[in-house]
Predict the 3D structure of the following.
Amino acid sequence: MEHITVRDIVEATGGRLLCGDGQVELVHISIDSRTMKGQDLFVPLVGEKVDAHRFIDQAFLVGAVATLTSEHDFMEDKRPWIRVEDTKQALQDIGRYYRKRLNLPLVGITGSVGKTTTREMVAAALSGRYQVYKTPGNSNSQVGVPITLSEIQRSDEIGVLELGMSMPGELTVIAKIAQVDMAVITNVGVTHIEQLGSQENIYREKMTIQDGLKDGGILFLNGDDPMLKDTEAKAGCRTVYYGTGANSQYRAEDISIVDGYPVFTAVCRDRRIPVALKIMGRHNVLNTMVALAVADANGVPLEAAAEKLAQFTGFQNRQQIYEKDGVTIIDDTYNASPVSMLAGLEVLQSMKGAGRRIAVLADMKELGPDAPKFHREVGAWIGEHPVDALYTLGDLAAEIAAGAAPAENCRFFHFAGEDREGLFQALKAELKPGDCVLLKGSNSMKLGQVAAWLLES
């Protein structure tokens, strides 16, 4: 935060200053006493298991200069304590207040799959002209977005925010805090269907990003997505489609995959730009096209945007490729959905020069009652595009093996959900120079540990 005082926080939250100096300046907001940066406002959230009010004293010791509280009505202290009714709501109020003080344009990104990679690629394309602020890590929630907004500085010229959701109504809250000028919906899949009930419900929830889209804003939609290709922005806003078909103003043509890396022509209205990516997977073609569309809408020269995208190499646990003792390891363990798991398998299939292709797949979470079916469908794809060996981790992943069972010349190995050590030892004994191994699963399955062990062994 810049030029924000305790008095400003009192105004933003409608709270009451119990004690301390209202002119104390604040630089950061923290909800965790272990991650203070200095001159923090501590926001003690009340969770189902932990009430962070008990960490207020610790927060003051390690960098906080003020705190919110919903549990104290009187306090004698030289340090500022601000009484609010609800600390989470107060945090969101601070986010709204700070957003009003910002005069830079913001791009909001949501979708069932690929939000984070799309965020990174849009930011990369925009960096062809601007100093870009982007959501750090996974701060895309009702709690994370207000903190993300508070870190934007006057030197930043444009911002790219990831807006997540996992329950009905959540994205509306987040969108109204962020008040974006441009919104991107990457796709409508089945992630979080367990909480939302149906893909149609997921579609309706994703569209609520427009609840915070400013008048005159732009809605960027995936023209290849069956549920988005005929959707239009709300009244007063403009729709831009990106994809691979003629319905998209920004589309990719002449797509080829060279050793897993996409090469194609980006058709941007009346311009044709050659693109060669350094990140793997056909799905990143669409991420590139929306990045170019957003960049073009903000006046970034397309050649400069394409050059920045060609330099992008991804980030940890998202299709990162390593070589260890002659074995190629594709670490894509950050998360998984049916769409992204198939994308990872396509990358594995496209690896030229590989000896054996080995897939290590773990459970995909939050898919609701149809989760076994989604896993079997992934297996069915493997049945038609066989790998040399399939290792599965977890009860649901066993359904992948069941769906792939007809595959010829494919060896199957299954491990219980917590048996990552057993899986690692089996892989370590199996792998030999020339092999290519893909590791993919939901983050909660901790398959990233197995990838790390392979690289360290």
About this structure: The mean pLDDT is 93. The chain is about 35% helix and 25% strand.
